[in-house]
Amino acid sequence: MRKQLDTMTKHLTQEEIKKKMLEEEAVFVGNEQLETPPEWLVNKIAVNEWFRLVEQFNKKSMISNLDYTNLGAYCNAFARYEDIVKRLKLNVTIAGEVNQLVGLELKYSDEMRKYGALLGLTMGSRLQVGNVIIKGQEENIKDDFGDI
Fold this sequence. Notes:
This protein is mostly helical.
């Protein structure tokens, strides 16, 4: 499996680094599409979540235009989940509807977890990438200075 340059643990020569940078540049698809949320988001809550996540992704992320649909699906699941939780909390339901809402709450929670993992929103997915980055930095230090 190919890795991004900044997540590699192997020590690379300058020539290998330049080659990897060119490879990454050749396949980079950009993230400009993420500036505008899709029209098919279900409500204002989903749109607000879109903007909140894109702002965070812009700080440090590998997310790109290819994640557009996954991000939209996550935002819709988030909006629906929030609505259901509010309805359950306020008890604005009839007795038979509670079981249906709890089932939907679990469904949208699972969807958020699935799409969140794909987008790097979970601690586990971020720690995996972080672990690879730290190992690479440690190997670079060891290569430069040896075991101290």
